[in-house]
TrEMBL record:
<dbReference type="InterPro" id="IPR015683">
    <property type="entry name" value="Ionotropic_Glu_rcpt"/>
</dbReference>
<keyword id="KW-0406">Ion transport</keyword>
<protein>
    <recommendedName>
        <fullName>Glutamate receptor</fullName>
    </recommendedName>
</protein>
<dbReference type="Pfam" id="PF01094">
    <property type="entry name" value="ANF_receptor"/>
</dbReference>
<keyword id="KW-0325">Glycoprotein</keyword>
<feature type="compositionally biased region" description="Pro residues">
    <location>
        <begin position="922"/>
        <end position="934"/>
    </location>
</feature>
<keyword id="KW-0812">Transmembrane</keyword>
<feature type="region of interest" description="Disordered">
    <location>
        <begin position="910"/>
        <end position="956"/>
    </location>
</feature>
<keyword id="KW-0732">Signal</keyword>
<keyword id="KW-0813">Transport</keyword>
<dbReference type="Pfam" id="PF10613">
    <property type="entry name" value="Lig_chan-Glu_bd"/>
</dbReference>
<keyword id="KW-0407">Ion channel</keyword>
<dbReference type="Pfam" id="PF00060">
    <property type="entry name" value="Lig_chan"/>
</dbReference>
<feature type="disulfide bond">
    <location>
        <begin position="769"/>
        <end position="824"/>
    </location>
</feature>
<feature type="transmembrane region" description="Helical">
    <location>
        <begin position="660"/>
        <end position="678"/>
    </location>
</feature>
<dbReference type="InterPro" id="IPR001828">
    <property type="entry name" value="ANF_lig-bd_rcpt"/>
</dbReference>
<feature type="domain" description="Ionotropic glutamate receptor C-terminal">
    <location>
        <begin position="470"/>
        <end position="821"/>
    </location>
</feature>
Amino acid sequence: MRKKTSEVFSSISSLISSFSFFFLCLGLFFCTEMAMAQKRKTVPINVGVVLDMDNWTGKMGLSCISMALSDFYSSNHGSDYKTRLVLHTRDSKSNVVAAAAAVDLLKNVEVEAIIGPTSSMQADFIIGLGEKSQVPIISFSATSPSLSSFRSPYFIRATLSDSSQVQTISSIIQSFGWREVVPIYIDNQFGEGIIPFLADALEKINARTPYRSVIPEFATDDQITSELYKLMSMQTRVFVVHMTTSLGAKIFTKANELGMMSEEYVWIITDAMTGELTSMDSSAIESMHGVIGVKPHVPRNKRLENFTTRWKLKFQQENPTILNAELNVFGLWAYDSATALAMAVEKSRITGAPFEKLNISGNATDLETIGVSKDGPKLLQAILNTTFKGLSGDFQLVDGQLQSPAYQIINVIGNGAKGIGFWIRENGIVKKLNLRSGYSISKENFGSIIWPGDTTSVPKGWVIPTNGKKLKIGVPVKDGFSEFVKVTRDFTTNTTTVTGYCIDVFDAVMSELNYSVPYEFVPYAPPGAKTTESYDDLVRQVFLGNFDAVVGDATIRSNRLQYVDFTLPYTESGVTMMVPIKDNNRNKAWVFLKPLTWELWLTSFCFFVFIGFVIWVLEHRVNEEFRGPPSHQVGMIFWFSFASMVFAQKEKIVSNLARFVLIIWFLVVLILTSSYTASLTSTLTVENLQPTVTDIKELQKNKEYVGYQQGSFVKELLIKNNFDEDRLKQYNTSEECIDLLSKGSAKGGIAAAFDEIPYMKLLQATPYCSKYTMVGPMYKSDGFGFAFPIGSPLLHDVSKAVLSVTEGEKLVQIEKAWFGQPICSDSSTSLHSNSLGLDSFWGLFVIAGIAAIFALLIFLTTFMRDHWHIIRRSDPSFRGRIRILARNFDRKDYSSHTFKNNIELRDAVSGHMDCPQSPRDNLPPPQMNEPPNPEQIFPLPGEEGGNPPLHEAPPT
């Protein structure tokens, strides 16, 4: 019994143990499952999406956002992700609806971020709400530059600002040399935002915007047609179109109907339209044939191609009514924006905590009841620091804005587009991205372009207005100097004829243009006047719009450049002075002294005497011609030196040192006499044509009257240069100018006339030129030019044509036709016969002086060496030794070959010589290799302490 009981207890105990183990395992399993479930649990993060679902960008953007989140979480399925974005979509059909949708998302859903809205106008409303609630607003399509993170740090532009493409557009315009551009933009915040940046970029390349075409957002066909007609009436043919795709399609369709898509037109569209070309109607694209567009460059890769294929399938399934949908860059930016937000949410580890409510009274509005996100600041920093390789390229935000990549330049051809180049910030315009060198905007870097009108010729960018009006060219009305401009009125036929040198030059210049420009000349005189009193007033009429240009003898002046542009000058520049010529025939008695300055005369005289003295020193001991009484020797010094001037000296030179000196001196004399002769000839023939005045300071000092042409700027120039206004007299004609000059300042005339070189050269073709001459130019000026409005597209072409005319024979022929052949040559450069100065010959004198001194040094060295023993034995005093050297220098050098020949001749013929020229000449020559005769060392008879030598006979 006990045994059975124990067995029962044992069985029950085993059963209890088994149940205990089972329940323990079951508990452990449940605990593990609960832990795993807790670990796999993700935190939902509410995110708002505000897009215009009636807009193509909105539809495409929403589809790309959903695919981005799906791809992101599926690719990171095995990762330890704790967050997941939950999208709350709202349709924004207008600005008010978009704002209401944002308020609903922030107040009721308490979203941590908002993606959208689609347009810049809607974004402007929502940005303020995001800043108030500290919720990041991420837009992938709001491109207006007026929206920026500087206004609100919670605004993140995951797209490019419109301002980033203006440099690309300006580079295109600069490449082809267009000078005027008309922007055509939509009348809203999106359209206006780019204009200041575009204007600044055009200003940097010296292009101007003469007109801005603003198209209403909901413009009718009639409004668009009216505006296009206005553009057709202007001469500018370069248009930059910045507007939405729907409105842009209407404009190009109408422009094509009006013939504005033909030759000479240039159309450039911004990326707002370029990026959506694939979504436009085919007929609208065909009307844009030849249009140039810019768009951000998106690198092509397999990942992008794979996504594009998947997106088309998904979008077609969700929107079966939309056929042939094409993805553009805005869809890629929407995809990258959603990816960046998902990465930032996970990185910041936000928990989706409720908003912090503000203490508001019961009557608060919906805006006031919106709370403040606790996770907003942390999420904002995470988004700004997020970088990755997106579908559109590198995703990196700087100052809350996506960085600008390279821009691609496309050409719309048919119903498609082809790339013709790229623009890179560092390299400018390049044909291919991998071909980068230095910065360049050459049009050679573009591929082949088809322009409107199906032509490959580059349009010049402007034409004569289609209203058929001719250019009104203002010309001055003058009394005198009609050779430049002459206005002739025929009262019988009521016609006006304009002729003259300036008119012919302008006609020649316009004929050089490769296109026709109709124009007519309109004489200008202010009300109540018969002539043009002020050229400044005439030129100002161009600025006022009364004339399209001014042609005439209008000088290019700095003050006039403030309101007009001038072409290159077509005449000589400068203001010169005309004065009478004085007759110098009465002052020719001493004209022979004028060829040389007094310094040169004095230097020449001194050198003549010096060279004569050197020759005498070198020849005195060895040449009979240079001996004799002191007066004879002094006369010989002067005679020989000056006789060498005409090479008339008869004395024979026997010393080699003297010959060396004379060779150098003869060269100096030859050059000096030749120069003197040439200068004297010039002086005798030209000097009598000297002007009465050569310096304006002399006129000012003597208070002389001077003249200027009526209406010329020369008057202000003279007053500015300290001429008294009451000493200025005006003249109207060349005859009146000559009459004033002939009277002179003392007799009611003028001492000098100041005018521009073209007017003065006109007088060179008159008989008066023999009595008057030009001196100068005295002042600088830029010559005559044609005046055009500032920024005129004609200016560049006309300036090139001016160069073509002035460099050819055509201008010479026009000058001969109106001014004739000058009777008197321009003597302003040959009036002065300047005297020759020492600075022209000092090198010759230095050479001659060095040669003479060198010869003297050799002679003195040899002489001292030969007589050193005499100096050593003689009087110890310095003065005594000098006397002894002087006596020995005065004696003949019988060791010279000249005296040796004379002694031999004397001994052979008569045994004695003729009477000596001096007592010292009778001394016999010393014998070679014998000590000197003491009698020759001491003083001679008649000198202090001297006795006659024993062998010398008494004088007879």
